[in-house]
Here is the input.
Amino acid sequence: MFFLISLPVASATMPFNDLAPGERGYGRTVFRGTEIEEFEFEIIDLMRNYEPGRNFILVKLEGEKIEETNGVASGMSGSPLYIDDKIIGAIAYGWFQGENRYVLATPIEEMLDILESGEEYEFGDMEELPELKTPIMISGLSGRSLERLESDLDSYMSADFKVIPGGDETDPEDDYYPDLQPGSSVAVQMARGDINLASIGTLTYRNESEILAFGHPFTNRGEVNFFLSQARISQIIPGEQPFKLGSPVRRPLGMIRQDRGAGIGGELDVFPEVVPFSVDVNDLDRGRESNIAVQIINDEQLLTSLVPTIALQSVDTGLDRIGSGLAKTRIEIMGNNIPGLSIERENIFYSRDDIASRSLVELQELIRLINQNSFVDVNLIDINFSVDVEDSIEVALIEKLEIQNEDEIYPGDDLDIKIALRPYRQDSFDFEFTVSLPDDMEPGPTSMSVISGDSFGYYGFGSNDFDFYEEESLSTTAAGFTSFEEQIEAFLDRPQNNDLVLEIYPGFPAAPGFEEEEEPEPDMEEPETEDENDERPGPENQETPEEVPVDEIEEDPLREVIETDYVLEGNLYLDFMIEDPDQESDEEYRDYDGYESFRNSNRATSADTDSFNPGRN
Here is the structure.
């Protein structure tokens, strides 16, 4: 189905220098629904260089409609002002004090520069301007998700804004929604679908497919990529700071390309790049499935914020509770410059306090890694997240680690390993497996560890709280990596939370010693003289122990990853001795502190057995 949009010719304009205090005119805006209505105004003064390089028109609003709304309202930003049927500018800033009748208007020629050159005006202190708070209508988010988003928008938005719950998209009705004209209510959308994030304002100017609106910056980010839709106003809500309560029309009309000091500019019939994001939540306890699908504009900072926030809302809504549980997650991401064009990652999480937050840790980390990597512009294409949740405790403590070998251990031997796991409030059980040591493994003191998969990666250091990872700012630097592909591979190679990881760290080679020669007793009768041929041991000619090359001792550990049926907790470490097959005895290691403990201790036991409390970390 196609919709035809007529292309009206732009109205005539009147420049700032042709204006004079005392002149009267009319403005246009929508007070309710989509009908454009007029109000009156008088020019009070011309504010030259009110901000560096910027002029403003000080006007007083008048008329019956202004009396009904008790003055100017948020959402009227961009309302065009006319004298002799020529546009002089747009309402941009106002004072919510007293009668709320006085506003500052941005001259039309400064707004037209946005279309002509994209010039960005330099501001002084933005907070000094009495800016109308931009109403941002948010539907589909509530509670902690809405609070998180509002906090994130503080760092994204330059304009003062007011978050207003509600504002779901309305279905288009051709006979109800007229063509866009100066004075029409418009919505600038950053996300649309089951969750909407839109700002309501007023269209100032239209010349065929080019449009201008707002009269002040929205984000002031220069070149941008936002949806442009028509908006329907439900009501102007009165109060100390009145605002237009409205919602975007479900059918987008175009896109906003420029977001500058004098307003926003865009074009009809062209549309922004978006990233589809879907979340599937399966509540296994109640047998209920839910899905949320959203289109998010392709902006790295917004994606980094909105994806985990929308996912949090989706899981909270799907479970209809905040509490303990076990979650199995699956992440699928497609994008240009992603190795193989796609990423897939599965994992399992447990939390005793907040499984919704805990299940989103890797999704948030991966989105940040992609959008903040130092190597390539990924250009995401599609994001899918699915989670199955049940209120169960499939958690086990790594309780015991033993080496079963009775004989001495040599390079190339098979290690018989026994590990005991204790499921929460159940009896422990053992399982055994064999690890083969390399034939060229260095003899000497050696360490073994068994670690839960949750201990690997950027997180896992003491909190199940989703907000914890936000505050700590996950590392996405290039340290240790030479490419984006290496970063992704490192992420995907990490063990899952139900993996038991056994690592054996090669022992350091013993430093060769030297035999000290006994110094002869000095001859008291003959004075000691220097002799350059004197070969007695001394600092200058003493034999120096041979240095061990660094690459011989900085070896990667031998690793075995074993999948279990439990989210694992606890880490154990064990020291043992690998004998040298070319030595008849351990003589070269006997000076090593703790040698006997290496020879006699092939067992490690968890110290947390009595206080095992799953989900505490």
